[in-house]
Amino acid sequence: MNRLWTVLSGLGFAVAAMMPWVTFALNDGNYPAKSTLQFFDAPFLLTGFRLHLLVIGLLVVLFTFLPLPGRPRILRAAGWAGGLISLVNGAYITFKGGGLGAITAADGKVAFAAFVGVAAGALLIWSGAKAAPGIEFSWPERPSRWLAYLALLVSFAGLLLFVAAILTSGGGITNPYSAGQFMSFLAMAAGLIAALGATGVLRWIGELSEQHRYFSLLVMLGCALGLPFTSAGNEYWMTVAVNIGVYAATAIGLNIVVGLAGLLDLGYVAFMGIGAFVAANLSGAAAAAFDIHLPFIFAAIAAALVAGVFGAIVGSPTLRVRGDYLAIVTMAFGEIFVRSSQNNIGGLTGGSNAIPGIPPLELFGTGFQESISIGGYKLAGGVLYYVLIVLLVALVMGVFANLKDSRIGRAWIAIREDEDAARAMGIQTGRAKILAFLIGATLAGLAGAVFAHKTSSVSYESFRFTESVTLLAAVILGGMGTIPGAVLGASLLFVLPETLREFQDYRLMLFGLALVLIMRFRPQGLVADRHRRAELTTVDDPVEVAAR
Amino acid sequence: MAAYLEQLVNGLVLGSIIGLIALGYTMVYGVIQLINFAHGEVFMVGAYASLACYLWILPPDLAGTWYIALPAMILFGSLVAALLAIAMERFAYRPLRGAPRLAPLITALGVSVFLQEVVRLFFPDAKQAKPYPTPFIEGGITVHLGDGQFTIAYIRILLVVVAIGLAALLQLYISRSRMGRAMRAIANDPDTARLMGINPDRIIVWTFVIGAVLAGVAGVFYGGYQNTINTDMGFQNGIFAFTAAVLGGIGSIRGAVVGAMIIGVVKTIAGQLPFLGGTQYDYVWIFVVLIFMLVFRPQGFFGETERVRA
Amino acid sequence: MSAPVLCASEVSMVFGGLVALDSVSLELHSGQIVGLIGPNGAGKTTFFNCLTGLYVPTKGRVELSGSVLPKDPAKVTVAGIARTFQNIRLFPSMTALENVLVGRHIRTKQGPLSTLLHGPSFRHGERAARSRAQELLAFVGLSTVHDELARNLPYGDQRRLEIARALATEPTVLLLDEPTAGMNPQETEATRQLIFAIRDTGVSVVVIEHDTKFIFSLCDRVSVLVQGRLLVQGSPEEVRGDPRVIEAYLGKPPEEVAEIVEEAENE
Fold first, then answer.
1. How many cross-chain Cβ pairs, B to C, lie less than 8 Å apart?
2. Cβ within 8 Å, pair A320-B235
3. For residues C94 and A414, is the Cβ–Cβ distance under 8 A?
4. CB A87 within 8 A of CB A118
5. Chain C residue with minimal CA distance to B309?
6. Nearest-CA distance C137 → chain A (Å)
7. A411: distance to nearest CA of chain C, Å?
8. Residue B156: which of B216, B65, B223 has the closest Cα?
9. What residues of chain A lie within 8 A of the CB of C94, using their CB?
C-alpha cells in the first residue's frame, strides 16, 4: 500500500518535469530549461532542473522496488530534493516574473508544474518515512588497501566534479536567472548528499580517509589542484576560490580556538587584518610605511609572526577571564583594532585610504595574476594564486589535524569540556589557552598575507566585526572542531553571496538568522564532530546529570 | 575649563542613556546568566518604533506638542521593544535554556545581527541615518564659567532625571515587590524556586520586558538629543552598556548606573584630551577600560566574588 | 616507622566568617589506605581541595614526601597527588581512552613543534601513551569500552574511568572522593577490590566515603571529621568502638548504634 504512494509521488515528479512551468516569457527572456514546454510534447529535450526532477522521479519508482540499505531515508531525501527544486523554481519564477500568474494561469495558458512537484515532494516525504527498510548492508570495516585507495580516489574525484558542477550551475554572471538555477541545483545536490548519507557510504569513506590519512590528504590535494581543469576553471571562479581559500584557512585557525579549545573569539578577523597590513607594509606597496620590498615568503612569515604575537597578547586575559566574558574581551580587542586602523595608527594602515598598490606575486618572472599554459592547455588567469591558496589551506589543515589528535589537542579539548578537571589532571590551562590563540592567530596572519597580495589593496573595512561574525558562522555552520566543517562553512558563506547576488543585501540578515536556527536545531553543524560538542548540545548526558 | 565641564555634563548625559540600557543587561544576566547581546538592538528598535510613531501615527498637529508627543513616543517605543523582547526570549533563548553556555551567546549574536539588518533593510530609508525630532521643550540652560560658556539642552536634563529616577524605582521594585523577590529566587536557584511554586518562565519574560521598556525609553531620549538615529546605534551603545554593567558589577542595579556614568565621562573626557588621541580614539578607551575591568576585577565594583567550585 | 608520604598538619580553612576546617591533621604512610568519614558538611571535600591545591589553606601546611605542596592544582598533580571528584568530572565528549590519555598529559612531553611535524619521536611517545592508557583501562576493567564517549558510559564505569584517569598521572597518593556513591553492593565490592589492587601497586590512597561499613573493611586507618574538626583518628577498630564517633557521627539512639556495631563486628 505504501509503495503505491511512493510510486505515485515519483510519477508526480516526472509529470511535473514535463509540464509547463511558466505561462509567459519572463522580463529577462525565457526561463532556462525551456520551462514553457507543453505537456509531454518533447520529453527527450528536458535539460536543467526539469531533467533533475525527471531523473529523481524515475529513481524513486525504481528505489521503491529495489532493496537498498536505508531506503526510507533515501526516499525522504529524494522527496526533499524534488520538492525543494519545485519550490525554488516556482518561487523564483514568481519573484522574478511578476506574481502568481506566472506559475498558475494567464493568457489562456496554465503552468501548474511547480504545485505538482511540491505536492509530490510532500507526499514522498510523508510516505517515504514509512517505506519498508531495505536490506541490511554494512560496508567492509577494514577493506584491503587497494580497495580503500580506489574508493578514496573515486569519491574525491567525484567530489571535485561535484564542486565544479555546483559552482558553474548558475550559468555564469551573464545569466539573469543564475540565482534560481543555482539554488535549484543546490537542492538537488543536498538531496544527493542526504541519500548517499543514508546508505552509509559517506561515513564509510570518512572512516577510510581516517585510516589512510596521508593517502587521502594527497588525493584531496590532487583533486583540489585539478579544479582549474574543470568547467569552473575560469578567472572568475579562480578569484572566488582564492577568496574562499583565504577565509577557509582563517576559519580553520578560528576552529582551533573555538572548536578545540572552546574559547569564543569574536575579534578573530583582526589577526587576518594584522597579517595583511604587515605584508602590505613589507612588500613595497606605494603607500607603505616602510620602503622595503621583502620576497613574499619572508613577508608572509613576518605577517604570521606578528599576528601570532598579537594573538598571544589578546589571549592573555584567558588566564583570568572565562566563558562569555572572554568573548567580550576578544570583541573589544577586535574593535580596538578596527578603530586604530581606521585612524591610520602610526601611518601603518592607510586609514580610510587603505594601502593600495600592493604588487602581485611573481615566480620566475610570471605574475600570479597572469594566465599560464601547461602542455598546451591554457589555464585561466589567477590560477597560480589558486595553487598557492590550495597549498596554504592544505598546510593549515595539516596543522589542525596534527594538533587535534595529539597531547596538545587533547589538552585543549579537556579544557573545553571541564577546565577545573583539566587542571586537576596537571594541564597548565593558561599556557594551553594562550598557545591556542597564538597558533590560531598565526594561521590567520598567514592567510592575511596572501589576501593582501591577491586583492592588491588592504583596508580596515575588510576586518570589521561582521567579518568575524561571518567567520564564526562558517565554523559553526560547518561543524565545530572539524576540518571539512570549516572548509564547507567558509565555502558556503562565500560562494552563496557570489551566486546569489540578487539577494546580496540580505546576506547578513540571513547569517544572523542562520546562527539562531543552527543553534536551535543542529548545534553540531553540518559536519558533526565525532566528539559531539559538549558546549553546544543540550545537557542530556549522564555525566552532567549525575553532576547535579 | 568650560570645555571640560561641558564634556563632563555630556558624559553624564551619555551615561544616562547607557545606564538605561545597562539595566537590561544586568537584570537579564542577573536572573539567567545570559549576556543578551541583542539587547542593544532592542534599544535601536525602540528608537525606530518611536520615530515611526512620530511620523505616521501621531496626527501632525499633535506631534508638535511635547507633552503629548513625548509620552506617546515613549509608550509606543517601549511597547514595540517589549514585544520584541518577549518574542526573542520565547523563540530564541527559551529553547536553549539548560544548553551549554556558548550556545545562547552565539544565538544572541545571531539575533543581534538579524535585527540590525531587518531594520536597515525594511524601515523606509534606514540605510542612511534618520533625522529625529526633539520631543521636548527646545532650548536649554546656559552656563557661564570664567570666559567660556555652554548650553545644556532641557531634554538632556530631563534624560538624566528620568534615568536616575527609573533606576531608583527599579531598585525599589526588585527589593520590595513580590515579583522582585521571585526574580532574586530564580537568580539564586531556579530549581528550588520552581519547587516553591514560582514559574520561572513568567519571571524571565518579565525580566526581559522590564529591560526592554527601559531600553525603549532610552531610545526615545537618544534620538531626542542626538537628533539623528542609525541602525548601528544599538550595537555601539549596547557594547558601552554591557561594559558599564560589567564595570558596576553585573547583576547590580546601582552598579549599572554608576558604571554607565563612568563610561560616559571616560568617553567624552578622553575625546577632549589630545594626548589620548581625541575623539577618534574615544571608543578605544572604553574598550581598554572594559578589558582591564574584566581582567582585574571581573566582579565589578558592586559584584560579589565568584567562589571556586570543585 | 618511615616518614609519611603525605602529611597535612593543622590545616585550617576559613571562608569569610565560616570556619570550614579547624586545624585538621592527617598522616598517610606508603602503602596505606586511609579513610575520611564524617557527616555532610563536615568539611571532607574542602579538606581534599586543600590537599590538591584547589584551595590554599588559611593556616597550616601540606607536605608531600617532605616538600610543601605548590599552590597550583596542576603542579600538585605533577608533584604526585591525583584525585577523583565527588560529582564525576570526566570530559564527557571524549572517549574513555582519550580521557585516560589526558591523564598522561604531564608524563608525556611532546611540544608544539614536534606535534606539528609529527616526527618519529612524537609518534613513539604517542604510541607509548596509548598503550599505557590501554593498560590502565584494562586494570580498572574497562578495556572493552575504550572507544565509547565518556558521557555514554554507565555510572559505575564512569567512576572507574575517573580512577583510571587519575592513575594515568602516576600519582604517589590517590584521593578518592566518594568512589562508591550510587553503586549497588556488587559494584561496591568490585571497587573495594580495585582499591586494594591500586594499593598493591604502591600507591597510597585516601578515601572519602559515607558508607562506614565500606570504610571499616577497606582502610588501615580512619579519621572522623565533624564540623571541620578532627574528632577521632585511629584504626578501624578503635574508631568503630569510640562512643563519641557513634554519637556525633551517627547521631542515633544507643540500641540502634549497638546493632550497627555488632553488624560491623560480624564482618
1. 8
2. no
3. yes
4. yes
5. C54
6. 17
7. 6
8. B223
9. 410, 413-414, 417, 531
Q: What is the pLDDT of residue A11?
A: 92
> What is the reported pLDDT for C249?
60
Nearest-CA distance from B230 to chain A in Å?
Answer: 17
Assess contact for A411 and A422: CB atoms under 8 A. Answer: yes
Q: Do B310 and C54 touch (CB under 8 A)?
A: yes
Residues from chain B that touch C55, judged by Cβ atoms under 8 A, are 308, 310
Q: Which residues pair with residue B142 across a beta bridge?
A: B151
Size of interface A-C (CB pairs under 8 A): 128
Distance CA A299, CA B24 (A): 47
Q: What is the pLDDT of residue A545?
A: 34
Torsion region of C38: left, alpha or beta (phi above 0 gives left; psi -120 to 50 gives alpha):
left
* Residues of chain B contacting C45 with CB distance shorter than 8 Å: 310
User: Does A544 have pLDDT greater than 50?
Assistant: no
Distance from the A430 Cα atom to the nearest Cα atom in chain C, whole angstroms: 11
Shared domain check, C267 and C207? yes
In chain A, residues with a C-beta closer than 8 Å to the C-beta of B118 are: 509
* Tally of domains in chain B: 1
Q: Where in chain A is the domain with CATH 1.10.3470?
A: 233-546
The answer to whether the Cβ–Cβ distance between A509 and B114 falls below 8 Å is yes
ipTM computed for the complex: 0.88
Contact between C101 and A548 using a beta-carbon 8 Å cutoff: no
pLDDT band for position A543 (50/70/90)?
very low
Residues 6+ apart with CB under 8 A from A114: A16, A21, A86, A87, A89, A90, A93, A103
Nearest to C245 by CA among C263, C215, C225, C265: C225
The angle at the Cα of B239, spanning B236 to B241, to the nearest 5 degrees, equals 110
Lowest mean pLDDT among A265-279, A331-345, A519-533, B14-28: A519-533
Domain boundary among C143, C170, C197: C170
State whether residue B308 sits within 8 Å of chain C by CB: yes
- Residue A371: is it exposed, middle or buried by C-beta count within 10 angstroms (0-12/13-18/19+)? middle
Cβ–Cβ < 8 Å for B249, B301 = yes
Phi, psi angles (nearest 5°) of residue A357: 70, 35
Instruction: State whether B99 and A469 contact (CB < 8 Å).
Output: no
Residues C182 and C161 in one domain: no
Residues A401-440 have pLDDT tens digits of: 889 889 999 999 999 888 889 999 999 999 999 999 999 9
In a domain? residue C86: no
Question: C103 and C221 share a domain?
Answer: no
Q: C-alpha grid cell for residue A33?
A: 530549461
Which residue of A lies nearest to C78 if distances are taken between CA atoms?
Answer: A426
In 3-state terms, what secondary structure has residue C194?
A: helix
Query: C55 touching B, CB under 8 A?
Result: yes
Q: Provide the residue range defining the domain that includes B105.
A: 2-296
Mean pLDDT, 10 residues at a time, chain B of 310 residues: 84 94 91 87 96 89 83 94 95 84 83 92 88 82 80 87 92 87 82 83 92 95 91 88 86 89 90 78 83 80 48
Q: How far apart are CA B115 and CA B112, in angstroms?
A: 5
Helix (H) or strand (E) holding C26: strand C18-28
Amino acid identity of residue B296, one-letter, is F
Q: Which residues of B touch C83 (CB under 8 A)?
A: none
Cα of A352 to nearest chain B Cα, Å? 13
Q: Do A34 and A25 form a contact (C-beta atoms < 8 A)?
A: no
Q: What is the pLDDT of residues C186-243, one digit of tens each?
A: 999 999 999 999 999 999 999 998 888 888 899 999 998 888 888 888 898 888 888 8
Band of pLDDT at residue C251, cut at 50, 70 and 90: low
